[in-house]
Amino acid sequence: MQNIIKKTSRILETVSLIFLILLFGCVLTQIIMRNFFNSGSVIIEELARYSLVSLVFLMIPVLIVDKQHIIVDLVTSRLPKKLQWIFELLGEGCSFLMALFLLLSVNQVLSKNWSVKTPAMRMPNYIMYIPIVIGIAFTAVAALSFIITLLKNGGNTK
Predict the structure, then answer these.
(1) What backbone torsions phi and psi does residue 46 show, to the nearest 5 degrees?
(2) What would you report as the CA-atom Rg of the chain, rounded to the nearest whole angstrom?
(3) Nearest Cα to 84, choosing from 3, 158, 154?
(4) Phi, psi at residue 120, to the nearest 5°?
(5) CA distance readout (Å), 134 to 8, 57, 128, 131
(6) Less Cβ crowding at N or C end of the chain, within 10 Å?
(7) Residue 27: enclosing H or E segment and its boundaries?
(8) Global pTM?
(9) For residue 124, what is the DSSP state?
(10) Bridge partners of residue 124, in order along the sequence
């Protein structure tokens, strides 16, 4: 299971890098168009926004899997190992529940706005939400995997 999660994480990281390059290109194009041609493009602006949202939601699970997200352990690092394990288990449980809640929320939004299109690119909402759903779903899978690992190893996730 860990190998599948790591490989999926690398794929999401690569796709995120593509969105980062696209975001950079869109912003650069907008700067050039506005400063030299006195004209902007709402399509490029919307593409930049889509790239940013996709980049963020696809990188969240990558950072969680690699344990590179912000972890505030000022208090918990001073606790006994058993309590550290309990707090880590609670944190992963909260991450899992949050991901499930967000997936249900996205489902509600999409059920009411399925056919709505974005203003500039006329992209259907369901396409706009694909990277968001993938990122949140993989966050839930990663959190569940960490919970299982914590329960199997008694807290040793390394």
Answers:
(1) -70, -35
(2) 19
(3) 154
(4) -90, -50
(5) 11, 8, 11, 5
(6) C
(7) helix 2-36
(8) 0.87
(9) B
(10) 117
